[in-house]
Specification:
By secondary structure, this protein is an alpha/beta fold. Helices cover 36% and strands 21% of the residues. The protein has 6 helices and 7 strands, in the order E-H-E-H-H-E-H-E-E-E-H-E-H. The protein has helices spanning 16-31, 52-55, 60-75, 92-101, 143-152, 170-182; strands spanning 2-7, 36-41, 78-84, 108-111, 114-117, 123-129, 157-163. A 5-stranded parallel beta sheet has the order 2-1-3-6-7, with helices on both faces. Helix 1 links the parallel strand 1 and strand 2 (36-41).
Amino acid sequence: MKLLHIDSSALAANSVSRQLTAAIVARWQDSVPGLEVTYRDLDADPLPHLTNAILGGGDAAAAQASEAAMQQFLAADVIVLGVPRYNFGVPSTLKAWIDRVAVAGRTFKYTENGPVGLAGGKKVIVAEASGGEYAGTAIDFVAPYLTQVFKFLGITDVEFIRAERVAYSPEHKAQAIEAALASIPTPLRKAA
């Protein structure tokens, strides 16, 4: 089994979402013998945002980076995605990654009956951190967006582990992290 671990926070060691993804990945490593983990840090090694040169194939280095991101995504059975909430949405570096894996003919296709996802059979675990409280509100643009993106690609098994209100106070932050860590489920082992 292959797991793709992606972090997108710009806060390095101060990142709550990175703390959560590390705990989720550790839980999977403890529970799934032989798990192969690939790590991608979108802050330390960001993909360039889409440009005409990239879309037109005129940037060979960007094309190579795009293909590497696509291959990592396609090879993964499980994706653990660290997502801090920046200005109501996902980090732009994560959006750039999504632009590389949401590709017509590779991860979805258009048909007479509408789009069809081609990347099904994967599990996505989103470790989301936010300074305020947004889950389930009218201004939660992260969970609905990511759920829709992955559904569009054919992935319906999307789970959210959230730490909210981390900017309220040190006590709120500690409580939010503790609650999020406690909510991480133990992965089910696949039958041999």
